[in-house]
Amino acid sequence: MNKFKRIIRDPEICGGQPVIKGTRVLVLDILDWLKEGKSFQ
Question: CA of 11: how far to CAs of 3, 8, 15, 16, 37, in Å?
Answer without folding.
Answer: 19, 10, 5, 4, 30
